[in-house]
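U., I forgot to send this yesterday:
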Amino acid sequence: MRPIDWAVMIATLAFIILYGLWRSRGTGTTSGYLLAGRAMPWYAMALSIMATQA
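Result:
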C-alpha cells in the first residue's frame, strides 16, 4: 500500500470513530446506547438487521 492509501484508511477510521462518539454523547446507560432509547423507527431496525445479515 502506498502512503496515500494509508492516509485515506486512517482518515476514514478516525471519522467513523469520532462520529460514533459524537452521536453517543448524552447516552447515560449501556442499555440506552444498545437499545437506542427504544426510539429507533421500524425501517431503520429492518435496515440494520439486513445489513448485519449481509
